Design the sequence.
């Protein structure tokens, strides 16, 4: 599949990649931001001395 894409029109491939990346950023961005914030809160709280649950 990669060879077929590489043989295609460069501008078409570039625009398709840009469209897919934009969709991924719009879809996954808020979830990533939330997960990062929750991870920061979890690390800030030292409720356990063990790094992982048993």
Sequence:
């Amino acid at each position: 599949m990669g060879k077929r894409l590489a043989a295609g029109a460069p501008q078409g491939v570039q625009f398709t990649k840009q469209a897919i990346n934009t969709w991924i950023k719009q879809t996954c961005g808020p979830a990533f931001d939330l997960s990062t914030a929750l991870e920061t809160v979890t690390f800030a709280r030292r409720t356990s001395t063990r790094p992982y649950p048993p």
The CA atoms of residues 23 and 29 lie 10 Å apart. The radius of gyration is 20 Å. The chain is about 75% helix and 0% strand.
